[in-house]
Design brief:
alpha+beta, 11 strands, two-stranded antiparallel ribbon, 4 helices, 244 residues, 30% strand, Protein Transport Mog1p, Chain A
Length: 244
Amino acid sequence: MIRSVSFPLPLALATALMLSLTACGGDDKKTADLGATPAPSVTPTASATTPAQSVTRTTAELTKALLVLSDLPGGFTQDKDEPDDGSKPFSSPSSRCKTLVRYLNATKAPGSKASVTRTFSGGQEGPYVDFGLDSLGTAEEVADLRDSYAHAVDDCSKVTLRTSGQASTSMKVEKITAPDFGTKPFAFRLTGTSGPKRGLEYTAAITGVGDVVVSVGVLAGQGTELDPATEAAVTKAQQVLKPA
């Protein structure tokens, strides 16, 4: 479910960059400064009057709802899609980390019926911004997955990352304040505390737009990119995807 965290990249952290993401808004464009604090959004509440029917999304439909390179500012490039090689870079000897390790090693959300992703880079040393959309069928399933992921992070304080040709890196796991966009947003951070990737940081946000999980990850950023990146991803998904 976290695609770019397999870290196929140079290890130096990004230098100070002031970048922006653009969220499309009809004929107008809304630019979110990655160094600014975005205004809070109003999170819609789902109606519980009747059981929601499962929605079927196609890959093509989800693809249209993903941010594209033209939505981002100059200086970003789109990374080439890499086939899944079946590797599982994350591990832990603790049984309490079993669920989190499974989620971190997944290439799509558990239970996903359709999944799309794009990764963009702002240079050789980052930041790398990863966007993913997964259709689960109903908003209730999205909320359940979000809760399960949050509990998994609460239960696990450390995981081990191993990359090809290098020693293992110990990664601290911690929940962080989530960007206030979408439904029931949740966010966490992985930080290298020892090993070849010590100091490397990855932040991720998971939220919902109806029956779709929106996931955003920032690798080798400056700590200010996650909120505007999530706002841009959620805004486009809301505009393109028909309500469940």
